[in-house]
Amino acid sequence: MSKYRNHPIVREIINGLSKLNLPKITWAKDVLVASLDGECQANTDPVNVCIALHFNFDLEDEEYGEHMQIVTVESCINGGGTGLVSVVMDCLSEDMTVCVYDSTEGEAKNFWPKMAAKYPNIVRY
Question: Is residue 81 within 8 Å of 111, Cβ to Cβ?
């Protein structure tokens, strides 16, 4: 069970993601997965919508300071990835930095620079 499960920011993120009608919200250690079908692995299902988030609010890294990592974002709906990331990022304070690791190809190469321009607290992608 994640020690962050009841963290106020995590609860706010879960509430926001729930409003997007993602029926499966699961935990694997400190990774939260919200999806249509319970899976969130890059390129596994062309009709899935999901986001996987790794939390580490205890991290004190002077160089990067990431407190959360966006592991994967997938959406078969045009604009769905932007919606997922926006829900998450809007729950965070501007000083809470986020690192992105997304192993998908193609649109992800253009997607993350756009998200980083919109949300300056996305520090690496």
Answer: yes
8-36 pLDDT, tens per residue? 888 999 999 888 888 888 888 888 888 88
pTM (predicted TM-score): 0.81
**What strands, in cross-sheet order, belong to the sheet with 97-100?**
24-28, 31-35, 49-55, 66-75, 97-100, 122-124
Nearest to 58 by CA among 3, 119, 6: 3
Does residue 87 carry a pLDDT above 80? yes
CA–CA gap between residue 100 and residue 28 (Å, rounded):
18
98 in Cβ contact with 104 (< 8 Å): no
Q: Are 19 and 88 in contact (CB under 8 A)?
A: no
